[in-house]
Amino acid sequence: MTPDLKPLDEQVMVITGATSGNGLATARMAADRGASLVVAARSEDALDELTHEIADDGGDAVYVVADVSDRADVEQIAAVAEDTYGGFDTWVNNAGKFIYGRLDETPVSDMRELFEVNVWGLLYGSLVAAEHLKDRGGGAIINVGSVLSERGMILQGAYTASKHAVKGFTDVLRMELEAEDAPVSVTLVKPAAIDTPYPEHAKNYTDSQVTLPPPIYAPETVARAICHAAETPERDVYVGGAAKNMAQMEYYAPGLLDRIMEKFFVGLQTRDRPPRPPAENAFDRPSGELKERGDHEGYVAKRSLYTRLATSGVSGKTLGAVSVVAAAGYALYRAAREDDERARSSRGTGESDESGWTPRRPLAKRR
Question: Which CATH architecture has domain 8-311?
């Protein structure tokens, strides 16, 4: 059965991790498009600020203070939606935790905590949502994965593992619901690197300040994909042509991609600056603030032509051509930037590349 999803302005949407990054961008966009919202996160101050912001703009939202690693908290989110709006139509599992560091230098206790949120929190949300939506007559479950659901990323091993688990769970949940002819759409959204506070909020076990590898996209690109999937059943959506390109390279040339990552992707994810103070991460405690964007210093793409075409029913052959052209264009852009930097360096300007990266030695454990 193909689920019949409502227009967004007739929906109630639940969003976890709604006070930061992609979740915050999605909450603002969905509210602008007329959806009523149930927003959930750990920080009551930030949630209160968000619901007042939405109300001041003419929207409708209620919040629930929740830690999704606790199933009782997740069930409370659904209960509030029932009590306030009579239920919900779309559930977005977006809450997450992040770690940078070598696997052998990351405490297993932190990896477990990351999995409690990224995997078990998403599992709880999906199961609660599926039960509700089957009784309600249909709707959408949207799980926020990552391009790292498809391929491993050096320095982000624990996060990569969690997103692989998210993909496996999401795929099986979709099949089970389809097999019982349930009118529930299940979508996995797989973003490329997005300019959110991800690096600032992450727990960092390197000896440098961490960042995201380019190309970087704006969080609105993810919000558009989520809002689209709330109205149109999709199996999965890559956000950013770079995400699709990486997945294709993993499929066709995984060994080559391994070598590229080993050589370049430590430098692409670190800066020649000391790490941020550990107390500033949002792993051990809520950040307590609304923050949609991160501190990326280079170019941020506001839109993705690939994703726009992919969500418009364009053929796979055309999409493949678009992704190849986009990859070639970005490679030319990077080459031009590097040539410009070499010229500046020879003139002794001392200016650094806008993306803020310098290839570095393999990182030692932070002391």
Answer: 3-Layer(aba) Sandwich (3.40)
